Predict the structure of 2' cyclic ADP-D-ribose synthase BtTIR.
Amino acid sequence: MNSSYYQNQINRLEKDIADLQKKIADENKKEIDKNKQIDSVHRTINKNTSISTLNSKQRQIDGYQKDILNCRTKIASYQKSIATKSAELGKKRQELLKAQQSEQKKLQDDQLKFQKKLQSEIEIQKRHLETLIAQNYSTQNNKLVSTEDIPEPTKQYDFFISHASEDKDDIVRDLAEALRNNGFEVWYDEFELKIGDSLRKKIDYGLSNANYGIVIISPSFVKKNWTEYELNGMVAREMNGHKVILPIWHKITKDEVLRFSPSLADKLALNTSIHTIDDIVENLKNL
């Protein structure tokens, strides 16, 4: 059973106990009221009270005492039910704790597996990038590379924007234009890609020649293969000791980022839910 199952049972038991405690309080109030009624009857009896009236009042008192006994019987029954449910509540809380510990261990195991998988992919991408850089350097020296493989002249970028295409209209296009309007060189696919270009080569070139990589992390981003390719390339550069990745969260929660990449969730990020494009640009100016 998962923790939600036990939590629901605990909530039900706690409600049952609270209802029983209220019933006990109601019966205690009834008992107090009946004792007051008995006292009231006693105060009406004096030496002039006739035998018939006295007998009538005694029957009245007997009725109140019977009601009091009934209240006490109910209270005892409610208290017994509370004791039973409290014992059951204690067991359910222990079961909840065990379920939570089991779920936490599973989450940690899943995160560890993901980190190992990510580390393996990063190593592969790192070797791939190193090979590309070495090939580009070698072909440049031997003048054997075409203008399609390495743009001429070589261009340096302040920022490479990694994003999912679904986020272009929401945030990415406006951010890219705002950065360019503030004098930054920006690698953004709508600025750089032309018909017939090799997407992989252009991305590799942008990643290799950008000072920073802005990563727009969104629900769409974490599902894309190309964005993961770009992110792995940036992580490979960071492993050489350079701060590269600048995360911006867009319509995504910390738990979602944590499931995608625990190491990425640990980075200080800007968030479009609280930062405007102008705020983001100002923060990037301070790098």
